[in-house]
Amino acid sequence: MGRFAPLLPELILSIGGTILMLVAAFTGRRGSGLTSWLSVALLIAATFALMGAPSHAGPVFDGLIAADLFASFGKAIMFPAAAIAIIAAHGWFEHDHEHSSEYAVLIVFSAVGMSVMVSATSLVSLYVGLELQSLAAYVLASYRRSDERSAEAGLKYFVLGALASGILLYGISLLYGFTGTMNFTGLASAFGRGAPSLGLLFGLVFLLAGLAFKASVVPFHMWTPDVYEGAPTPVTAFFASAPKVAAVLLATRVCIEALGPATEAWRQIVIFAALASIFLGAVGAFGQTNIKRLLAYSSINNVGFALIGLAAAGPQGASSVLFYMAVYIVMTLGAFLCVLWMRRPDGEPVETIASLSGLSQTRPAFAAAIAIFMFSLAGIPPLFGFWPKLLVFNAAVASGYVALAVAGIVGTVVGAYYYLKIVKVMYMDDPVEPFERAREPIQGFLILLAAVIVSPLGYLLIGPLGALTDRAAGALF
Amino acid sequence: MIASIAFYLFATLTIAPALAVIFARNPVHSVLWLIVAFFNSAGLMLLLGAEFIAMLVVIVYVGAVAVLFLFVVMMLDIDFASLRSGFTRNLPFGIIIALVLLAEIIIAVSAWQAGPALSGHNVAATTQPNIVALGQLLYSRYLFPFEIAGLILLVAMVGAIVLTHRRRHDTRPQKVWKQVARRPDEAVKVLDPGVGEGMKL
Q1: Which of A106, A117, A350, B86 sits CB 3.0–4.6 Å from A355 for a disulfide?
Q2: Inter-axis angle of helices A314-340 and A386-398, to 10 degrees?
Q3: B73 min Cα distance to partner chain A (Å)
Q4: Which tens digits make up the pLDDT trace of A195-235?
Q5: DSSP letter for each residue of A199-221
Q6: Which of chain A's residues have a Cβ under 8 Å away from the Cβ of B162?
Q7: CB-based contact A52:A136 (threshold 8 Å)
């Protein structure tokens, strides 16, 4: 049993998820509430199980996966995010009678995949984790079968995701073929033997391309706006939060642990991807009228900033990536929880930015919450979203990439435009038909909590969170 | 010697049909070329001394190709009558392909008996059948990814059921009990229309 102790969170989730599957099978449609709450309980239990062996046991199963603080940090922010995606869906699917218990179970399995991703230290576990997470995500994207857009989103995501998996696998096979090992440490020592050969470089590029697709980084971002728009909103909230963190953390671990000696080879790729994501994410959002599409571009833009921290490499850079993703997940979930509350008085959800017009007069508190998330996503100083941006720029400057940091700052200014546009629509335009008054105290509490964290009060977290990310990033070196 | 000849034979015959898969205009031909490519990659596995994987490639992939074939037939509009018409004309070509495959099998078997000459270092296959070695590794060192792969299959199954098995309101299934319980007086209406009055239903 001691051998399995480091895997306790994954064991809780996978065994619990399988049992919940049975519960779902026997209770049918009536059991959706029960399964949802049990899934939330499982995810919370898994989060608590991270304390102890899962955060410091080191390599498990001959170095296939690592139970270190880096992985635990990722899981500690992803599991609650997955739980929030389940809670958010509960009220939302009820209203169109398409809710079934499988939604929660699929999210639990997806969480298992993500936790394997962040703790993978071998190309085998990297691939199975990624595939488990993606496969559940494809199903979730087309969860509302009656909605054409949802079916289209699922198909698009599936076809492009399968292509990305193919590219990733090709990269893995090249790396394995030229080094003879799948372990990150083995790869690092192979890359450490002088300049990498052409085959290794090709493997590296394909591997990074596959990961970039999963993290929706430019130039592999094309699917993001369509899938985020078409998928049911709670699913979009999930896509934009936990899986994205998993993909970015996985890329960080691969770049630093496996490809560390070849930093010069991947740094240029990461720098290009970071800047392209920042600018394309900002420019692409300009003409959008749908708030989910806009948030999709916003997530592309934000991952670009996190990649600046990765390009800086070194402990400070890795720590800033972790900090960035932790704050990003709170801002994004907050913003999406607000989008979930955008409903006409008859309960029909709306997604247009125009429907927010004059919200400050009809629903002042709601408008204030959205404004806080928008300002924070834009990185405007008094709010907490500013601090992680500062950290990644700091890390870039510290490793001598001043131009990169300056370009990032310019990108922030460009991107601020469309966040501010939403605030302008809410506060300066004439009011339209008010939204339905939501009666969901838990969601309301979560929005409030997220708003408090990203408000200037969040600066109180800098000390503990900073220390934690520093220690977590230290696990990679 | 025979091993290197066999390697280059199989390698060429894997790559060339793979190209043909892409360039063939007819999707059915693509699928057939794919089978040739799979058989030859199985031959490559055989040269490495991995006879179990070679058999697996043949069984699994040719099985998968059968499904792919079904998809091609169902999804695409192909005129099978015109495909079948040239049977006698194409028979010599078919026989040549069959002979090539037969020659390959003979070469593969003789090369395999010569031992895994190409793998560089001798694999333990001589002392232990590699199906045993594979099983031992899967349930010890690679237990973790193996179990996760099991979860992936579970998710695939759950996903397929979630997406297809749901109640629809726009279908009209046959209700046998309703048909059986139907009585003549519900189904037939006897009317006596007067001359020139027409009928009201």
Answers
A1: A350
A2: 160
A3: 20
A4: 778 888 888 999 999 999 999 998 888 899 999 999 988 99
A5: HHHHHHHHHHHHHHHHTT-TTS-
A6: 100, 102, 106, 139, 143
A7: no
Q: Which two tokens stand for residue B76?
A: 């695409």
Domain boundaries, chain A: 2-474
Amino acid making up residue A47: T
Q: Per the structure block, which two tokens stand in for A221?
A: 């971002």
**Amino acid letter, B139:** Y
Contacts of B43 (CB under 8 A, 6+ apart): B6, B10, B13, B54, B104, B108
Dihedral angle over CA of A348, A354, A357, A359, nearest 10: 40
What is the rounded end-to-end Cα distance, in angstroms, of chain B?
90
The domain locations on chain B are: 1-79+93-122, 128-164
Distance from CA of B85 to the nearest CA of A (A): 36
CATH 1.20.120.1200 given to domain B1-79+93-122: yes
Q: Are A315 and A256 in contact (CB under 8 A)?
A: no
CB nearest to B163's CB, from A60, A128, A142: A142
Spatial separation of the C-alpha atoms in residues A43 and A16, rounded to whole Å: 10
Report the 10 Å Cβ neighbour count for B148: 22
High-pLDDT (> 70) share of chain A, %: 98
Contact A35, A17 (CB under 8 A): no
Structure token digits, residue A469: 């990310």
A132, A155, A158, A165, best to mutate vs chain B, most B CBs in 10 Å: A132
pLDDT digits (tens, 9 = 90+) for A257-314: 888 888 888 899 999 999 999 999 888 888 888 999 999 999 999 999 999 999 988 8
Per DSSP, the three-state class of B65 is helix
For A290, list phi and psi in degrees, rounded to 5. -100, 130
Confidence (pTM): 0.86
- Using CA atoms, how far apart are residues A368 and A375, in angstroms rounded to an integer? 10
- Of the candidates B145, B162, B166, which has its C-beta nearest A125's C-beta? B145
* B112 alpha carbon, distance to own chain's centre: 27
Q: Is A183 left (phi over 0), alpha (psi -120 to 50) or beta?
A: beta
- Report yes or no: A392 and A304 within 8 Å, Cβ to Cβ: no
Measured distance CA(A55)–CA(A62) in Å, rounded = 17
Residue-wise pLDDT for A80-95, tens only, equals 999 999 988 877 776 6
ipTM above 0.85, yes or no: yes
DSSP A165: H
Chain A contact set for B152 (CB, 8 A): 128, 131-132, 135
CA distance A71 to B16: 44
Q: What is the pLDDT of residues A329-369, one digit of tens each?
A: 999 999 999 998 888 887 788 888 888 888 888 888 889 99
Closest by Cβ to A62, choosing from B141, B149, B154: B141
Question: A24 — contact with chain B (CB < 8 Å)?
Answer: no
Instruction: Point out the residue among B152, B156, B158 whose CB comes nearest to the CB of A105.
Output: B158
Nearest-angstrom CA–CA distance, A370 and A375: 9
Determine contact, residues A449/A372, Cβ cutoff 8 Å. no
- CB contact under 8 Å between A109 and B144, yes or no, is no
And the tokens for A262?
A: 């070849």
Chain centroid offset of residue A33 CA: 26
Query: Which of B121, B162, B164 is the best residue to mutate to test the A interface, defined by the most A CB atoms within 10 Å of its own CB?
Result: B162
DSSP 8-state secondary structure symbol assigned to residue B58: I
Q: How many CA atoms within 13 Å lie on the side-chain side of B77?
A: 0
